[in-house]
TrEMBL record:
<dbReference type="InterPro" id="IPR013106">
    <property type="entry name" value="Ig_V-set"/>
</dbReference>
<keyword id="KW-0732">Signal</keyword>
<dbReference type="InterPro" id="IPR036179">
    <property type="entry name" value="Ig-like_dom_sf"/>
</dbReference>
<dbReference type="InterPro" id="IPR007110">
    <property type="entry name" value="Ig-like_dom"/>
</dbReference>
<dbReference type="GO" id="GO:0042101">
    <property type="term" value="C:T cell receptor complex"/>
</dbReference>
<dbReference type="GO" id="GO:0002250">
    <property type="term" value="P:adaptive immune response"/>
</dbReference>
<keyword id="KW-1279">T cell receptor</keyword>
<dbReference type="InterPro" id="IPR013783">
    <property type="entry name" value="Ig-like_fold"/>
</dbReference>
<feature type="domain" description="Ig-like">
    <location>
        <begin position="2"/>
        <end position="107"/>
    </location>
</feature>
<dbReference type="InterPro" id="IPR051287">
    <property type="entry name" value="TCR_variable_region"/>
</dbReference>
<dbReference type="Pfam" id="PF07686">
    <property type="entry name" value="V-set"/>
</dbReference>
<keyword id="KW-0393">Immunoglobulin domain</keyword>
<keyword id="KW-0675">Receptor</keyword>
<keyword id="KW-1064">Adaptive immunity</keyword>
<keyword id="KW-0391">Immunity</keyword>
<protein>
    <submittedName>
        <fullName>T cell receptor alpha variable 9-1</fullName>
    </submittedName>
</protein>
């Protein structure tokens, strides 16, 4: 079935350090890919969305590029801040079958 695998566990960073959270996916189709962020005490919010290969999306200093060849959608930020402390979810949606998968990562 469709699934995503992302960097496991908690990452501790100092302010100003760069961040990469890996996200790889498996799908028999051509899925849409998403990053969600969940700040403490809040519900998940959509951070980034990519619909097709080579889409490069950015929001709040975060960016990710849809790489169909490597089946990846890694989340990157050049300089993290304390306010970036949150749980980050990588997710996919198969527009053909409607199936979905997700994984989470806490920063």
């Amino acid at each position: 079935g469709d699934s995503v695998v992302q960097t496991e566990g908690q990452v501790l960073l100092s302010e100003g350090n760069s961040l990469i959270v890996n996200c790889s996916y498996e799908s028999t189709q051509y899925p849409s890919l998403f990053w969600y962020v969940q700040y403490p005490g809040e519900g998940p919010q959509l951070l980034l969305k990519a619909m097709k290969d080579n889409d490069k999306e950015s929001n709040k200093g975060f960016e990710a590029t849809y790489r169909k060849e490597t089946t990846s959608f890694h989340l990157e930020k050049d300089s993290v801040q304390e306010s970036d402390s949150a749980v980050y979810f990588c997710a996919l949606s198969d527009t053909v079958t409607g199936t979905a998968g997700e994984a989470e990562h806490k920063l």
